[in-house]
Amino acid sequence: MKVMGYKKSSLLQLLVLVIRRDLVLAMRRRADVLTTLVFFVIVVSLFPLGVGPELGMLRKMAPGVLWVAALLASMLSLGRLFSADYQDGTLEQMMLAPQSLSMLVLGKMIAHWMVSGLPLVLMAPVLGLQFDMSAQPLGVLIIGLLLGTPILSMIGAIGAALTLGLRGGGVLLSLLVLPLCIPVLIFGTGAVEAISSGLSVASHLSLLGALLVLSLVFTPLVTAQALRISME
Amino acid sequence: MLEVSNLACSRGDHRLFYGLSFSLKPGQIMQLQGENGSGKTTLLRALCGFMMPDEGEVLWRSENIRHLGEDYCSEILYLGHLNAIKDELSAVENLCISAGLSGFVLKENDAIAALRHMGLRGREALPAKVLSQGQRRRVALARLMVSDAKLWILDEPLTALDVGAVALIQGLIAEHLENQGMVIFTTHQPFRVAGMEMHSLSLS
């Protein structure tokens, strides 16, 4: 008996399938999602407690603290990006998919951002209040995070693919990925500092946007290649 | 259709096999034989294109699979040691996603029909983590029913299966061969497909 009630799927359908699959899996494994978010909240909240209630100082350090915490929080979940699929054999099936592996990888990156990046962006305004940030810098911070966190997921995916199946890969992953994220950190915090001192934020944000577009084009290709190497 | 010429593979410094040549035509089935560690899985992975052979090449319709890339992928179905099944998803979801990854939109009703044929009636909506080893293998093997791949590459498809399931697989393989499909597989169990000549290749 053969079941033949199917039709060929398009590239877009495949992308949607991968994103939906990863989101469903994340919802059924909610603990993983919550660890990232709780880590972010706790790290950011520790600073006002540690530094003391000096408003001028808090306002000055707010963008840096929020950005560094977001960077570290996004590192937390990177290790799981491909490892579960690698261990249960799904990755083998993905590599045999008749569509390009880069597309599947892009789907996984988008899902990863929605699960571990987007909640941080949504949480940031609340945390910014602890640092006495005013509305305008907060707005710029959020736009910056919105542009920057997908880049973190995408650059991180390259590292995750390269360290796949290695023991102690988590530490190596951070060592590989964190230096590459420095430009994102600089432009992200730079935008907030610019608006606080009355300058234009356009240059910082457009550079972040350019980085995002560059990553969107190149990181799926590089990650797919890295996965092929790791699977040999 | 599938031709392997002068293939050599190694794992680390250890050379598993060399000078391996064979071909497989539509309607033929081949069983790989050899002790544990003789390179059966490595050969199957090389046939899938997961690993570069040290020497030699694998040809599909007289073209190297390295150059065919995704066109070759759409014509093969690989089932490895790992089931590629997610614990958190139900049998139906698992099958629909597997089909999706191999480029097909599979309707839920069709997935249920396939799973029932595989003897999983009543288990379709359970999360895979509550299924037994054999049942999980059956979910993985249900992919054979919803694929139109020409070449099946099966690595120990019979592990954890009971007698009834083995008979089911025999039936699926026989049907596939009648439709001019090809199968290459490994197993340590006695396995025959009625009315079909079994080619065998011994690795040592």
TrEMBL record, chain A:
Any one of the GO BP annotations: cytochrome complex assembly
Localisation: Cell inner membrane
Membrane topology category: Multi-pass membrane protein
InterPro entries associated with the record: Cyt_c_biogenesis_CcmB (IPR003544), Cyt_c_CcmB_bac (IPR026031)
GO cellular component: plasma membrane
UniProt main location, coarse: membrane
Keyword Transmembrane helix listed: yes
Pfam families, per the entry: CcmB (PF03379)
Record carries keyword Protease: no
Membrane spanning residue stretches: 36-52, 64-83, 103-126, 138-165, 171-195, 207-227
MF annotations from Gene Ontology: heme transmembrane transporter activity
Residues in coiled coil: none
Keyword line: Cell inner membrane, Cell membrane, Cytochrome c-type biogenesis, Membrane, Transmembrane, Transmembrane helix, Transport
NCBIfam families: ccmB (TIGR01190)
Similarity comment: Belongs to the CcmB/CycW/HelB family.
Known role: Required for the export of heme to the periplasm for the biogenesis of c-type cytochromes.
Protein name: Heme exporter protein B
Organism: Candidatus Gallionella acididurans
From TrEMBL, chain B:
Recorded GO MF terms: ATP binding; ATP hydrolysis activity; transmembrane transporter activity
Name this protein carries in UniProt: Cytochrome c biogenesis ATP-binding export protein CcmA
Translocase in keyword set: yes
Coiled-coil region: none
Alphabetic keyword roster: ATP-binding, Cell membrane, Cytochrome c-type biogenesis, Membrane, Nucleotide-binding, Translocase, Transport
Source lineage: Bacteria, Pseudomonadati, Pseudomonadota, Betaproteobacteria, Nitrosomonadales
Source organism of the structure: Candidatus Gallionella acididurans
Matches recorded under Gene3D superfamilies: P-loop containing nucleotide triphosphate hydrolases (3.40.50.300)
Protein's UniProt keywords contain Cell membrane: yes
Protein's GO biological process: cytochrome complex assembly
Entries under PROSITE patterns matching the protein: ABC_TRANSPORTER_1 (PS00211), ABC_TRANSPORTER_2 (PS50893)
SUPFAM superfamilies for the chain: P-loop containing nucleoside triphosphate hydrolases
Domain ABC transporter: 2-203
NCBIfam families with a match to the protein in the record: ccmA, PRK13538.1
